[in-house]
TrEMBL record, chains A, B:
Keywords: Cytoplasm, Flavoprotein, FMN, Oxidoreductase, Pyrimidine biosynthesis
EC number: 1.3.1.14
PANTHER family the UniProt entry points to: DIHYDROOROTATE DEHYDROGENASE (FUMARATE) (PTHR48109:SF1), DIHYDROOROTATE DEHYDROGENASE (QUINONE), MITOCHONDRIAL-RELATED (PTHR48109)
HAMAP family for the chain: DHO_dh_type1
SUPFAM superfamilies, sorted: FMN-linked oxidoreductases
Dihydroorotate dehydrogenase catalytic domain span: 9-285
Biological process according to GO: 'de novo' pyrimidine nucleobase biosynthetic process; 'de novo' UMP biosynthetic process
Listed cofactors: FMN
Protein name: Dihydroorotate dehydrogenase B (NAD(+)), catalytic subunit
Pathway(s) per entry: Pyrimidine metabolism; UMP biosynthesis via de novo pathway
GO cellular component terms listed in the entry, alphabetical order: cytoplasm
CDD domains: DHOD_1B_like
Amino acid sequence: MDISTRLAPGLCLKNPILSASGTFAYGEEFSRMFDLSLLGGVVTKGISLLPKEGNPTPRVCETPCGMLNAIGLENIGIDAFIAEKLPFLCTFDTEVIVNFFGTDEDEYVQMAQRLNIDGVSAIEMNVSCPNIKKGGIEFGKDPKILNRLVAQVRKSTTKPLIVKLSPMVTNIGEMALAAQEGGADALTCSNTYPAMAIDENTWKPILGNITGGLSGPAIKPIALRIVWEVSRQAAIPVIASGGATSWRDVVQFLLAGASAVEIGSFSLRDPLCFGAIIQGLIRYMQNNGLESITEIIGRLKTA
Amino acid sequence: MDISTRLAPGLCLKNPILSASGTFAYGEEFSRMFDLSLLGGVVTKGISLLPKEGNPTPRVCETPCGMLNAIGLENIGIDAFIAEKLPFLCTFDTEVIVNFFGTDEDEYVQMAQRLNIDGVSAIEMNVSCPNIKKGGIEFGKDPKILNRLVAQVRKSTTKPLIVKLSPMVTNIGEMALAAQEGGADALTCSNTYPAMAIDENTWKPILGNITGGLSGPAIKPIALRIVWEVSRQAAIPVIASGGATSWRDVVQFLLAGASAVEIGSFSLRDPLCFGAIIQGLIRYMQNNGLESITEIIGRLKTA
Amino acid sequence: MEDCNALVKDNRQVARDTYLMTLACELSPFTPGQFLMLRLTGSCEPFLRRPLAILSCREGAVELLYKVKGRGTSLLAGKQKGEELSALGPLGKGFSDPRPDEEAVYIAGGTGLPPILAMAERIGRGHMIIGAYTKDDIPLWQRMQDIRGVEITAATEDGSMGMRGVATQALDDLLKKLQPPCVIYACGPAGMLKAAASLAKGFGARCEVSIEERMACGFGVCSACVVRTTTGNQRVCIQGPVFDAADIEWGQ
Amino acid sequence: MEDCNALVKDNRQVARDTYLMTLACELSPFTPGQFLMLRLTGSCEPFLRRPLAILSCREGAVELLYKVKGRGTSLLAGKQKGEELSALGPLGKGFSDPRPDEEAVYIAGGTGLPPILAMAERIGRGHMIIGAYTKDDIPLWQRMQDIRGVEITAATEDGSMGMRGVATQALDDLLKKLQPPCVIYACGPAGMLKAAASLAKGFGARCEVSIEERMACGFGVCSACVVRTTTGNQRVCIQGPVFDAADIEWGQ
Ligand SMILES: Cc1cc2nc3c(=O)[nH]c(=O)nc-3n(C[C@H](O)[C@H](O)[C@H](O)COP(=O)(O)OP(=O)(O)OC[C@H]3O[C@@H](n4cnc5c(N)ncnc54)[C@H](O)[C@@H]3O)c2cc1C
Ligand SMILES: Cc1cc2nc3c(=O)[nH]c(=O)nc-3n(C[C@H](O)[C@H](O)[C@H](O)COP(=O)(O)OP(=O)(O)OC[C@H]3O[C@@H](n4cnc5c(N)ncnc54)[C@H](O)[C@@H]3O)c2cc1C
Ligand SMILES: Cc1cc2nc3c(=O)[nH]c(=O)nc-3n(C[C@H](O)[C@H](O)[C@H](O)COP(=O)(O)O)c2cc1C
Ligand SMILES: Cc1cc2nc3c(=O)[nH]c(=O)nc-3n(C[C@H](O)[C@H](O)[C@H](O)COP(=O)(O)O)c2cc1C
Ligand code: FES
Ligand code: FES
């Protein structure tokens, strides 16, 4: 049986299960729980040129079947990442996908250049950071700006380039095509949904940052629709992100058109879920006489 | 204590609790369970010029802490509504807010004209119907088109005009201002989120319509953020819609800036929730020495 | 119709994947075919209530018979004595009584047994057919035998009990032996209902079918549960679940 | 650290809103201050695990002592013998032992008692202060009395037990009677920890504080739970919850 999946020229995952950015840190903690080599790939916490302190606490909050986070992209910066984290990740037999962001076009380009090194299997560009200064948020909201940004980054790297889209846009298909035409190899659909929580006793927002991003099972139905919509419009592979918790969800995302699936918030709750999900997927394929996951991807029956 | 709330010149609800469109039909069924006069207002199922059959079944599906629906705006049409349903609704001591939609500008205008009659307290214009023909879906997606449509409808009626926005847009503040400048008296934030569900055994979408709208507690954190965002930008009152289940949720929406709150999906699950929510709100105000809900509305402490 | 607190008094397995639950719950009198919308938890998960037909209701004790299908019914199967549910009902329109001159025929398949058994127990005369894949799928066999005046036939697809074949085959056989006027009460999979409706028509019998459709509210406000009829869409939860088979547009 | 199935063996109220739960669960040996992330249900609601300090762990029996605050802890209080939870842990860095020459002082307030009591039971010498609003808020009083070698002082704000006042007032009084070197172990509300840290500094005592912060993962990957220290943000769940008080930037 073949559960490998191709995301770009030169980027083939041995299975479609990835960690998600920001819920896996740089892999060390999870590596104490299971062998990271079992994953199709590891997606790192979002990295920036300089280290970032992030937002005031509380940074997370529980919601119905989900959670909000406003970590504020706290990270150790590219230098420390390359020196201290990347070598460790490279010791595993898995693809290392580095998530990154910048505060302006120049920073994105510099990051792409810095990450154009051995050990990095691909880069995932986050263009939906609500917490970065002027210009930042527009990257993921305006197709022209996105297209230009992606094109600049494309020129700066030979790595497979994945663009992670924001879900909260009027026309996600248009954003997907803008990224594709800019030279993206694949698209991650998608990031969290701007949201908030309020304490009716204190009359204050629960998060230090006032608003945060909604993730978890609550949003899975929207993520599924976005994957379906984008994968029918874009010619490049789609990576699903949003609320996956089980091999069932993974099969649903594959049917909707995803070539791989990131498991984010749920792995905070159940850190050992990855192995179970991969095993479940294999058993499902066995039970249904499927030889390759390409027999599932995009095969939703709508007629 | 004063829990009345003002939505427009000539539209003051005795309390901020409304039913939501599509989860209350035309009030008859609920009237057998409690006296509709206890509500601040009743929002009817969306009405169109001609009766509409709606989508194939299954039309609903359960999701984590929420549900999808793709009813397809099945309704009895304006003639039958005025003849058979409106007189009944007028027997209650509550405001009757008629939700409506059209397939083009002309139909919206005609609907507004037809509804400019005694017994109708206000009209709620649905500009986010995913199931209507060419042009329809753009009403709620493009600020210029929305502005023009609202302005046309505004000219056609003397009733308070509420515009119900779609949440799935890049910049909801811009849409809110477009509606406001078109002449809307109030804004409902917001409709359901386009989403889908897939059966991994049959490889088919669960809904007959393939996609549907996500509602219920799952989306409350997004709705809260939208209300907060819109109410700070718009000068007109905001009605919250999305996931409210309790007096706590209602207080949170008021703090975020809503002047009233619609209870939709949750009332399908717990049809007697309205009375409990209103009582809970009154008790909360008593316990906190609040004299008027204007002391709550928009008073979120963010500093 | 009310929203009642319902305490689990008993909940036991009575056939493969099938449970009989007894609730302590004050319901208004019901007609067979009517159902409850059960809320399974106090939290919003699972969000929707589940529709289950009322099997019996006597002196504050309500019986439900259900098959474990998915998440909601699994949760239900795990409920223990003393746990609390909330039950909205009785909902919908039940079966009409047979006229005194009508021979009554009851036919059930799949999850369709509860309303049919309730009807047979209420009327106490006629012929009842229960269809299943195999013997182990048939619950409450002795109880059915005990209904005086009702003759019970089982039809199993694997032949492990009663006749080998589907329930509508047994219905066909039975009708050949009966004299009109006759009324058929049917509940089960769509295919079975359609076949029963067509046999009834051929025989000139009145036929009432109880239809299952996905529901959100169960009391008529959301329009989730429509079925096509000769007079347009009807809401199964409030205009049904029992319909005259002649009014249904059966489709394909 | 593992993810263990944990069966509820006992769950009883031991003070106002406060419960003692015993779980059957195979944990690795723990250091006081370390905690578990408890998953309360099999469904995704509530979604996040809840952090609770380990009170004791002996022969496959783990004790937790918790105050009912919100939804998660209410759910926990409703768990009955035989129900299953999942427990991730032991997590985090616990208290360090006192040096042989150090006098040990333990101070707990609010939900801070479990790690402090665990530490006092482990070390078995020194002075322990427990602060509460009123007598009824103090659980396990007899058990604390029974720790040989540890002298217990209660401080209640309403004066219903022990001295009237807050725990740090009692700490101030105590320190005046002690000779350095001394180590203070503190867990409780932020205000109390800050005050204890400042008293410790004045006295020249080492002070270890166990800090509470909202968590999502509890094992270091999400960066939800940071606290400001002199060397930048640290994650409470993995670099704490126990920190040297001198390293914390206490703020306002
Ligand atoms: C009026 C009526 C009476 C019924 N009476 C009985 C009965 O007495 N005994 C019995 O075993 N079953 C009965 N059913 C079917 C029963 O409601 C479903 O099997 C049950 O809802 C499945 O829920 P689940 O959570 O286990 O499945 P899931 O698949 O997890 O349910 C997901 C959603 O789909 C809905 N759904 C799934 N299957 C059906 C179905 N066949 N019909 C309607 N909704 C469905 C559920 O209600 C829920 O909203 C009845 C259905 C209706 C409409
Ligand atoms: C390391 C650590 C150890 C703890 N040990 C204990 C203990 O032994 N006994 C005890 O009674 N309490 C302890 N607490 C506090 C306990 O975790 C919270 O009271 C509990 O999580 C509240 O959950 P809830 O669902 O009842 O409240 P809710 O308000 O419904 O919880 C909502 C969310 O906020 C979080 N949250 C709320 N209050 C706190 C808090 N004070 N600290 C951290 N997260 C919070 C919850 O974990 C949850 O994610 C500890 C906290 C930490 C961080
Ligand atoms: C705590 C947390 C931190 C996150 N940090 C990042 C990040 O640094 N970069 C990024 O692109 N996405 C980040 N995300 C988004 C996730 O990668 C993922 O896209 C999103 O949570 C939806 O998937 P899920 O529902 O499986 O969590 C973060 C999410 C969470 C919950
Ligand atoms: C079954 C159903 C039918 C609906 N029909 C309509 C409609 O006709 N017109 C409309 O504007 N909104 C409609 N809605 C949206 C609701 O009015 C409401 O805005 C939305 O469900 C979010 O609120 P909730 O989470 O409280 O349900 C419908 C929602 C549901 C669940
Ligand atoms: S289920 Fe809502 S109308 Fe029938
Ligand atoms: S709670 Fe996730 S890093 Fe501490």
